[in-house]
Design brief:
Strand content: 15-25%
Number of helices: 2
Number of strands: 4
Oligomer: single chain
Distance between the termini: 28 Å
Shape: flat
Number of domains: 1
Length: about 90
């Protein structure tokens, strides 16, 4: 049904809340149906989540990585590659 329910929060505290699974187009439509306009979807992890061993201690490398993330975080064809999405709308 697209909902993750933690049936035993004592045994599984890492799953502390309900989670709703959406495809990007479903989340956009849900927000619009709730009265939000100018809906924007942003990938939280994006495809960078699959890259291991990134050197974030070097300022120049970290800046380059963050620029690359910013370039694709709203790319519609890549939104589904993110484990988490954030929907932003104006009401």
């Amino acid at each position: 049904d697209g909902v993750h329910r933690n049936l035993d929060p004592v045994a599984h505290p890492q799953f502390f809340t309900l989670a709703y699974f959406h495809r990007p187009d479903e989340l956009r439509e849900e927000l619009r149906s709730a009265g939000f306009g100018s809906v924007d979807l942003v990938a939280i992890e994006g495809p960078g989540a699959f890259q291991h061993g990134l050197d974030l201690t070097d300022d120049a490398k970290r800046a380059a990585i963050l620029r690359a993330i910013a370039r694709v975080e709203r790319e519609p064809s890549l939104l589904g590659a993110s484990s988490h999405l954030m929907g932003v709308g104006i009401r």
